[in-house]
Amino acid sequence: MKLMFASDIHGSLPATERVLAIFAQSGAQGLVLVGDLLNHGPRNALPEGYDPAAVADRLNGAADKIIAVRGNCDSEVDQMLLRFPITAPFAQILLPGLRLFVTHGHLFNPDKLPPLAPHDVLIFGHTHLPMAENRDGLYFFNPGSVSMPKGGFAASYGMLNDGVLSVHALNNDGVIAQVDITP
């Protein structure tokens, strides 16, 4: 199964449109949104093209293919605009021989782990920093931010394809980080 991951949209319409265009061309069966979809949050500047209502409208067009978790900037009011659930703090995706534990990163992260078994994958956002690592048999994956990247990285998204998790630059598809997670 091929999956695409996007995190920390923060209401940016241009970033959302780019993500949806890449998703449509990718052949991925699902789009996993790793929180902070509509709101920019009180500590962040407004992202380029800030338009939460339009972002919700565009994402609703792919609602049947989206799995999403709640970020620290997501609220009950945001859920009222969206046709797919976003209020769960985590989701688990079971693939043959593989469990993906998806969370935004403010509750669970590499420093505060949920219960994980060897070879599980923790997928998180929140930091806006891309990551694809194997640490002592656990995999950590952060697709970065599609709207407000940090640490000098480009805006980015993630893909799971043929047992490889990779982070790609949003505007040129260059690979920023990757890790093989085949058992």
Automatic annotation (TrEMBL):
Keyword Metal-binding tagged: yes
Top-level taxon of the source organism: Bacteria
Protein's UniProt keywords contain GTP-binding: no
PROSITE patterns hit by this protein: UPF0025 (PS01269)
Residue stretches making up the Calcineurin-like phosphoesterase domain: 1-160
Keyword line: Hydrolase, Metal-binding
Pfam families: Metallophos_2
Family: Belongs to the metallophosphoesterase superfamily. YfcE family.
Protein name from the UniProt record: Phosphoesterase
UniProt source species: Dryocola boscaweniae
